[in-house]
Amino acid sequence: MDKNTIIGFILIAAIIFGFAALNKPSEAEIAKRKRYNDSIAMVQQQQVAMQQKIDSTKQYLANADSAALKDSAAIALKSDAFGAFSPAAFGEEKFITVENKLIKLKFSNKGGRIYSAELKNYRTHDSLPLILFDKEESAFGFTLTTNNNRVVNTSDMYFDQVGDIVKDKNGNQSVVLRLKTSQPTSYIDFIYTIPANDYMVKYDVKASNMNAIIPPSMNLLEMNWTSKIRQQEKGRQFEERYSALHFKYLADDMEKLSESKNDQEEVNNKVKWIAFKDQFFSSILIADESFVSTMFNSEMMPEKSGFLKSFSSKMAVGFDPTGNQPTGFRFYFGPNQYKILSAYDKGVPGDQKLELRDLIPLGWTIFGWVNRYMIIPMFNFFSTFIGSFGLIILLMTIVIKILIFPMTYKSYVSSAKMRVLKPEIDEINARIPPEKAMERQKATMDLYNKVGVSPMSGCLPMLLQMPILFAMFSFFPSAIELRQQSFLWAKDLSAYDSILSWNAYIPLITPFFGNHISLFCLLMTISSIISTKLTTAQTPTASDQPGAGMMKWMMYLMPVMFMFMFNNYASGLSYYYFLSTLITIGQTYLIRATVDDKKLLAQLHAKGNKAKPKKKSGFMERLEKMQREQEKALKNRK
Question: Which residues of the chain have pLDDT under 50?
Fold first, then answer.
């Protein structure tokens, strides 16, 4: 170990210890963290104790329900089980319907919850009303503990509507549902405010003198929210892939459970919102403050059930029994549309932004940037004055191809340079036997350096186009604007455009390809094969090079493989790639007509004759050294 190595290790150790010292928490931070961990542990202990009480209470109520309600003994048993909440233990379920221009909500007095949510401007793939949840497909409730150790859930109790539906001058409507107790001045109000023209519903839980009913130390409420996700689209496999339970940490990133298998996760950090997300629609619960001690669960549903997945979440939220500070939430029942979700962050400080737009999968890092700052603004611009989304995709394709045309032209010219030099490359290969591969490569590189040609110059423009291609791959399946929009034979640009289907199950085919043929996907495949033929014709490949035949065969196989991949994808995506390939073919013929191979070859040699000898690069020196060592080893073996 030399002196430089020792100094390097010392510097690394100094950086590590210095970084640790600088980031060491202060005594106040340690105490604050300890208080936070203690509160989390207390919440978890309370949850365990509450669950035990809930289980015993359920068994208690089951004994009461087993007898007729008219039986005074059963009534007394049930009243005793609910304790101070016994006035809310009996009732008849009634519904209240409130709607605005966008959503139609049905409230149930049993549990004081939203019973169903319908999006008025959307329909399912079979033209039925689009309902996010209804009947027993969802559950929502809080767990309450009384002073005499009775544990009840709001979902089991009956609320009273306070007054009529109130509508203000702006068209906002309010519904108040009250959970009464044995003391007239002690109750809990669930206050729902439905805006005149928005998908976001305000929801407040406000107590009144509840410290007389529940323990004063009870400053957290345990919540339960579950819902089954309905199948709304034509392609279950694709919709299932984009459905997942998402949640966002307070002032941090969004996370999600697995889309492809049963999954669960326990989160001890603070959570800002929870989303039960489908491909194009979401039910989102947003806390004004935060959720703590959260448990998430996602379960796959059988294919014939009509549901994709079942989501559930258990969490705790701050609660003031005196009623001085209500516990506030917001519900979002609406589409996963980038423009709508982004609007909720306008004018909001950075650390308070909801970032609901992250629910839309626009791709990682640079692909997401391309979608946010190029594709989506262009799409929205054309949508303002063009009604046909097929024409919009056509215009977007033309604009994108114009923008990347300089790179396409440069890539073609680079391939043309390689093509006109092919006779000289063949002469090198004929002069130098295959056994001297390193010498062949050196002679070839010398020729390229002499005339100023780089074999990689044709690849770089193609690589620069890849972010746009991958961005479009993410954009089309998640663009709700394309949902149920028809163009030509495609009835829905967000789903596959089947022109031929069958019911038989074909092993190794049906799981990947499906039971149909999509026409836009087929046209995309045919145009890709034609484009590949043009590309291979203009790009020289020495037939005696190892693997040349296999590489050419793979280039033709790739479009066929993509056909299997895209057959179940959104027809809008296949349509875009089909248009893009057609324009590429047209550009190829146009560029070919403007590039003269003889003049290009003359220019290369003229440049090579004028060029001064360049100093060998480190790579070339290493290449020559490897060649000499290889030749020496070969001589020694002989």
Answer: 36, 43, 54, 64, 66-70, 542-544, 547
User: Looking at residue 490, what DSSP letter applies?
Assistant: B
3-state SS class at 143: strand
Alpha carbon 523 to its chain centroid, in Å, reads 28
> Among 272, 264, 266, which residue's Cα sits nearest to residue 317?
272
Please classify residue 457 by burial: count the beta carbons closer than 10 Å to its beta carbon, then call 0-12 exposed, 13-18 middle and 19+ buried.
middle
DSSP state letters, 574-630? HHHHHHHHHHHHHHHHHHHHH--HHHHHHHHHHHHHHSPPPPPPHHHHHHHHHHHHH
Tell me the two tokens of residue 93: 């379920």
Local structure of residue 214 (DSSP, 8 states):
S
Query: CA-to-CA distance for 600 and 613, rounded, in angstroms?
Result: 21
Across 100-125, b (16+ Cβ under 10 Å) vs e yields: bebbbbbbbbbbbbbbbbbbeebeeb
> All domains of the chain, ordered by start, with CATH?
85-358 (2.70.98.90), 368-610 (no CATH)
So what's the pLDDT on residue 542? Answer: 47
Q: Is the pTM of this model over 0.70?
A: yes
Residue 82 tokens, joined: 């609910």
Q: What is the 3-state secondary structure (H, E, C) of 300-317?
A: ECCHHHCEEEEEEEEEEE
How far apart are the C-alpha atoms of 194 and 211, rounded to whole Å? 29
The pLDDT assigned to 338 comes to: 92
Count the Cβ atoms, other than its own, within 10 Å of residue 612.
5
Residue 177: its pLDDT value, please? 94
Q: What is the pLDDT of residue 212?
A: 84
The H or E element containing residue 473 is helix 459-478
- The burial of 462, by beta-carbon neighbours within 10 Å (0-12 exposed, 13-18 middle, 19 or more buried), is given as middle
DSSP secondary structure string for all residues of 235-286: -HHHHHHT-EEEEEETTS-EEE--SSS-EEEEE-S-EEEEEEE-SSEEEEEE
